[in-house]
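Bug: token stream looks shifted between consecutive jobs. Job 1:
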Amino acid sequence: MKTGHAHLFIPGPTNIPEDVRRALSVPMQDHRAPEFAALLSPILRDLKPVFGTTDGTVVLFPGSGTGAWEAAIANTLAPGDRVLMARHGMFSTLWVEMAQRLGLDVDVVDVPWGAPCPVDAFARKLADDSEGRIRAVFVTQNETATGVASDVEAVRAELDACGHDALLFVDGVSSIASVPFRMDTWRVDLAIAGSQKGLMCPAGLGVLALSPRAMTLAESATMPRAYFHLGDMANAHAAGSFPYTPPAPLLHGMRAALDRLAAEGLENVFDRHHRLASGVRAAVDAWGLRCVAESPACASDTVTAIYTPEGVDAREVIAIARDRFNCYLGAGLGPLAGRAFRIGHLGDLNEGMCLSALGLVEMALNAAGARVPYGAGVAAAQQIYTPMPALRAQASIAAE
């Protein structure tokens, strides 16, 4: 029998703060009543700063981030439209497969898992597209499978440099509300998030933010859609409701989560995620292991994927962490299965929680046969997490 609470360090769903959990525990309510509109409308308003937009329109679809992917495509593109995408991890691959299944003509750039979005390759293809056949460019800002962040701003710069008017789609499911996202500044046309990651709620809401241009295109979209019809949803949202029964408790949780983000301040949220991620990466170095991300420059601030040493099965590390230590780590996906595991460090997280994760991972690694030095990762992260004035004071006392 397991005692104590489970240590959840997967990259989503993430830990739900206590005030958000309490907010979820509400009686059912009439979603056509005025008090429901009083709940929904401020949520839509307060999601805008999280996306970095004042001009955009936010809509909520009951479902996951994958549902929001489909809604983005179905409401702005048509079968046969050419789009430019990259495959460099499981989730970018799944997005490519969805686009193909929906009838898009997908120009795919394949790069190794561990690499970011290939901005230079995109730039060449956009520059060569003199006829403007590419209707949209898709970027996965944070590839959850590999722990790799991509530069959305750089893709926008290349679009501008060659005067291309393709739409810019961004999958921000494991990045938005955790790392900077500047929708208006980067002129992103469609940005996608989910309730279960940086927004610290249970899964069940796909969040889609659209630029004015994307909203205009949605009015004349021809791809078949019903449940994901943007016009139906936007009109219902304007009236303070949904076109069908919404998951009302999730909206109460979202309200509490947005209040938490506002109280901490988004820039502080971003700084916290970077600090926590830096500590995890320092631990990986101290263990003598290697991140899947090909360089520190593209390392994610929300999830770190870590190669196990030769001869050590990452699946065993994950199973030991789960069964012996009640600690849940992310599995290696696709070609990384058995070769890597993942530590999620996004959402409601602090230094103590990350240190717990690192200590438990050290035990699981050693139990699986990886001879990493006990305490090395924890100590390396502590050096990152301890404020410098405290370190200087400690050194001064030692010198005396």
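Job 2, same session, no restart:
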Amino acid sequence: MIKIKFKTDAEKYYADYMEVVREFEPHISDEEGGEELFLSLASDDQETKVIISCALLPKKYYEIKQKIDIFRNNLAKIAQIKRISKVALYDVLKMITGVSLPYGSLTGIRPTKLFHDLLSQGVDAEKVFEEDLRVSRDKTSLVSQIVKNQSEIYLKEDGVSDVFVNIPICPTRCVYCSFISAEFSKVKKHVPVYSELLRQELADCKKLIVETGYRIRSVYIGGGTPTCISDEDFESILKLCDFGQSEFTVEAGRPDTITENKLKIMDKTGVTRISINPQSFNQATLDVIGRRHTVEDIYRAYAEARKYNFDINTDLIAMLPCEGFEEFRHSVDCAIALNPENITVHTLALKKGSVLKVGGYDNSSDELAARMVDYAREAVGKAGYTPYYMYRQKYVSGNLENVGYSKPGKFCIYNVDIMEETSTIIANGAGGISKKLDIAKNSLERCANPKGLDVYLQRGREVFDKKRAFFLGETK
């Protein structure tokens, strides 16, 4: 590991630069006592100049001068300056470490959104990704393929919205999880109260939709594990989720919570799509990560769900503890054999607050992560699946990505809408974040509900009023 101490005279971009530095972990460690790496930035209306000095460089300093229109598009000046200097920093870190990252200088979670933006301006997006942003040809090809596949459902227009409903409760907490979800046993007495408050918010949501005139494309109930609450509460919430949408997803997630009654409830309330998420088909792994269900539970839940007309998504995670390439390949092959409509392949991200992060788990084998992800892409492709959405996360193994694969015509509308930020989102429940799209202003404003279950329960009506004011433009 190479130790550096990063500094810059462009303090307002410090957080952006540190995202690039972190992408090079564990090859580089930013800490006191390391060799100083200093980035100096100067810019005017015509040109941006970046000088990076470090004793580890083959020369005294690295210098780059770029015209403001380097990315051949209409990005705002400040965005271009950041991109130019981040690319320069990436080049230097690559020089020092000898390591090329699959997504080059890109640090954002939505590479496909940037690709869409470039295409909309008549730019050769593939050329920009490879030549200007240093993205590998393989990942550029993946992003390009996803963007092309999205064309049949990609929609960006005012007056369209999705509805998100959050039930942040799980049977147990997985060791990789950093979400706000609470374990059912610890909040059991609060669940009926939470369900009642959520029903009130959904009733208010329905009124809001009438007032705003939004056309609802999809409804997504996530968490957490929505199916871990009682049948009575579960059904009462789903009954309030008829907004005229064409797609209705419930993230059932944990196979041990999927019962015959839950499936019947989802069927009669119009659910069109569910998730059954094994994460792994290896029992030893399930035990280690805290899933508290068996491989047999996965097959049982899947077989029962197939009695209904749901599209099914199955999630897997590469780089889980106790798994090498063969264990992961086994999970991929098992998921394909089940023949779900969607298979989503995540790459493990070590999030702050997760048991794995706190325990010092090492997910930094870039070569193994790449081998796993490449196998999944090849295997699902041969089985007739195609990639249709993606996103990236911080602290992810191999600096890779999460990709949703689908059979033709089975793409999830909500996943595309939220990842490409092409739709307004009306969010309900603790931790829900509403988003209001204004195409003319090229803006996406946010309004967050309280994260914690306890705070959400305390604020009650205040939460609804704040969201109403946000969407109707009222002063609060």
